[in-house]
Amino acid sequence: MDVVGDFAIKYRLSLILGIISIVCILVSFLFRTRENPSSIIFTTNEATPSGQLPNTISVDIEGQVNIPGVYEMDIKSRVNDIIVKAGGFSSEADLDWIAKFVNKAQLLHDGDKLYIPSVNEKTGGDATVMGTVSARTVVNINTASLTELEMLPGIGEKTAEKIVQARPYNSTQDLRDKKVVGQAIFEKIKDLISVL
Fold first, then answer.
1. Between β-strands 69-74 and 56-63, what pairing exists: parallel, antiparallel or unpaired?
2. Hey, which bits of the chain come out as E strands?
3. Residue extents of the structural domains in the chain
4. pTM, to two decimals
C-alpha cells in the first residue's frame, strides 16, 4: 500500500472530523452573509443598523424664541413641543402671525425648520400651507418619506409613491418634466419643495 493510503487509514477519523468542520464553517459563513449583506440599501425612512426606526429627530427652531437652536426631539413630538423646549416665544415674536400660520399640533419630522418672525418683519404666508407643512418647512423630494410627501397640498398616497419611484430629481421642475404631477398641483407645492 502507498504512503497516502496508509496515512488515510491511520488518520481516517481525524480526516472525517476535519472535513465536517470545514463544511460547518462554510455553511455558517453562507448563512451569515445572507443575514448581513454587504450592499447598502437606501430607503425613504432612515433605519438604525438593527432595522428599527430611530426614536429621535433633529429639528431647528430659529427667530423669536428664547433659546433658538437645533434640538433632539422624540419622534412623536409636535410643533408645540419644540416651542416649549426652546423656552417659548420671545417678547418680540409676532403672535398674530403665529396664531394664523403655525399649527402647534402638527407632528415634527427629522430635518424640519421652524422660523418665528418678529413683529417688525414683513411676513407673508398661507394658512392652508402652514396647516400642512411646519412654518416655512421645505420638503426635499429626493429624500422625503411617503408620509412627508403626503403632507404637501394636493399630494395623496398614489402621487407620493410616484414621486418616490421617479427619483432622483435634479430640480423641482423635474416633477413636471417626468410627468409625476400636473401643473395645478405643481403650482401648489413648488414653493414648499426642494432637491437639496
1. antiparallel
2. 56-63, 69-74, 113-116, 139-140, 193-194
3. 3-35, 56-194
4. 0.42
DSSP 178: T
pLDDT tens by residue, the chain, 196 residues: 566 566 667 777 777 877 888 887 877 766 664 544 433 333 334 444 555 556 889 888 988 999 999 999 998 899 999 999 999 999 999 888 888 778 888 888 888 888 888 888 755 444 333 333 444 467 889 888 888 888 888 888 899 999 999 999 998 999 999 999 999 889 888 888 888 7
Q: For residue 7, how many other CB atoms are within 10 A of its CB?
A: 11
CA distance 73 to 79: 10
Looking at CATH, the fold of the domain delimited by 56-194 is given as DNA polymerase; domain 1 (1.10.150)
Phi, psi of 115 (to 5 degrees): -115, 125
Provide the β-strand partners of residue 56.
74
